[in-house]
Specification:
The complex is a heterodimer.
Chain A lengths: L9 H16 L2 H15 L12 H29 L3 H8 L4 H37 L5 H10 L3 H29 L1 H5 L2
Chain B lengths: L1 H8 L1 H18 L1 H4 L31 H37 L1 H15 L3 H12 L3 H28 L2 H9 L3 H38 L10 H10 L9 H25 L1 H10 L1
The chains are: A mainly alpha, B mainly alpha.
């Protein structure tokens, strides 16, 4: 709902566009390093690397998700603007529903394309974990794959690729099922 | 030349183009501009502070950071452009063939693209680099292999769309041969559709190349490259955190420049989108 803005000046528009777009193009290996330096070396809040406990999950998770947060914020905003002019909103207004209730309806209907985009982002997230695991020294499969590449260990690389392909298919299937649940119109198409 | 006029009136586009041109020129003339040799180590001046002699200081081997950044343009940005160029070449060639001639050749090319597209490109790049071994050429090959199918499909659908236009039918009736129609009527239209995608994707390719170099899968040791420089900065983060600022900012600026330029090009080339945005604003 934060992104619900219309009728602003051009200067504001460009500024907001810059703010929204910079996180998308910050290379995540750089963001990870900056986070480690700031929160681990400078302020000593989170551990620099390794995998023990909840505290060491926070930095890698933020690093990985930073790109997607602003992408999805933009996507949902565009959808909400489009949905605002639909008939059901007009009807809801005519019935005299509260503005908050109407916004909730619009929001739920705008999630549809984000869900589809989520299915597309999963492989990118998986590839992203390769870099993040390397920065934060996590013993994950991404790091295993990179080590395998250096050691010319072909079976492990093959297994990694196969696993990723299977995961990709499963994720897409789950997204399809969920979007049919969210929007019954999709399930009835024959 | 209404195109240039409209592009010039867009301030963001002008800034982005100038940034890209300046960066490219600096990269091409790096041997003349750079104050020091980017590879030769001088251990006695390691971690030097910012000074007139070393405008951005030196790294853990006493190499001038500014010189390494400038030479890094040659590897990162120029290679990204080469990758995009090769992808576009393959994509245009196959896409035009498939879209113009249709029939069995269209089926063969498109089904092959479908097979490649069903696989996530990030994992495919990792797989190709993994099989061929870590090296810069292999990273470029992997990027081209992961992208060309997508471009072929986009160009084909664009060609198919233009084939229905009356002026193409008219040229066919007049008896123009295939190469004339493709060169004079199809390519100018298709290029304007694809140039936006290509500009937007160049930023993605830069991120990819430097990301793989950061992992050590791309550029090998002494060659200066931005991702590689970040990797070296990672090891000395606790003592010299300023080392990771310069290469990271360089990547950020060039990627943002390419993306904003892509957005502006889309506004200029597609009046419909422009109107839509005016309404949305």
């Amino acid at each position: 709902m934060v992104d619900w803005k219309e009728g602003e000046t051009t200067r504001n528009y460009i500024l907001r566009r810059l703010l929204a777009i910079i996180p998308i193009f910050m290379p995540n290996f750089w963001v990870g390093l900056l986070f480690i330096w700031m929160f681990s070396v400078k302020f000593n809040i989170f551990p620099t690397s390794g995998m023990d406990g909840v505290r060491s999950v926070i930095l890698p998770a933020i690093t990985l998700s930073l790109t997607y947060i602003s992408t999805y914020a933009r996507l949902i905003r565009n959808n909400m603007i489009q949905n605002k002019h639909e008939n059901y909103v007009l009807y809801a207004r005519a019935r005299g529903l509260k503005e908050n209730t109407i916004h909730r309806h619009i929001f739920v209907n705008s999630l549809q394309s984000s869900l589809t985009a989520l299915g597309m982002s999963i492989p990118k997230l998986i590839a992203g974990t390769v870099i993040v695991e390397n920065i934060f020294a996590w013993p994950g499969i991404g790091r295993l794959c990179v080590t395998a590449i250096f050691n010319r260990d072909y079976p492990i690389i093959q297994a990694y690729v196969l696993l990723m392909a299977v995961l990709f298919v499963i994720c897409n299937l789950l997204v399809d099922i969920f979007s049919a649940v969210l929007d019954p119109r999709l399930g009835q198409e024959q | 030349m209404i195109f240039w006029k409209r592009l010039k009136s867009d301030k963001v586009a002008v800034i982005c183009i100038s940034v890209i041109i300046v960066v490219l020129l600096l990269g091409i003339f790096a041997p003349l501009v750079a104050p020091h040799n980017p590879i030769e180590p001088h251990i006695n001046v390691k971690f030097a502070n910012i000074s007139l002699d070393y405008p951005l200081g030196t790294d853990h081997l006493g190499r001038c950071v500014l010189s390494r950044l400038l030479y890094g343009i040659q590897t990162t940005v120029v290679l990204a452009l080469v990758t995009m160029g090769a992808t576009l070449l393959i994509g245009t060639l196959l896409g035009v063939i498939a879209g113009y001639f249709r029939g069995w050749i269209d089926e063969v090319i498109m089904r092959f693209c479908d097979v490649l597209l069903s696989f996530p490109s990030e994992v495919m790049i990792l797989a190709i680099v993994g099989m061929l071994g870590p090296s810069l050429t292999h990273v470029v090959i992997a990027n081209i292999a992961a992208k060309w199918a997508w471009y072929t499909r986009m160009i084909r659908s664009s060609v198919v769309q233009y084939m229905d236009k009356n002026y193409i039918r008219f040229s066919k009736v007049l008896g123009c041969n295939a190469s004339h129609i493709i060169r004079k009527h199809l390519l100018p239209n298709v290029v304007s559709d694809i140039i936006v995608l290509a500009t937007l994707d160049t930023g993605w390719v830069i991120l990819n190349i430097s990301g793989l170099s950061f992992l050590g899968l791309g550029v090998q040791a002494p060659t200066p490259e931005w991702g590689m420089m970040l990797n070296e900065a990672k090891n000395i983060m606790t003592t010299h955190p300023a080392q990771m600022l310069a290469p990271g900012l360089a990547i950020l600026i060039i990627v943002i420049a390419f993306n904003f330029l892509g957005d502006s090009l889309r506004d200029v080339l597609d009046p419909k989108y422009n109107q839509h945005r005016a309404v949305a604003k």
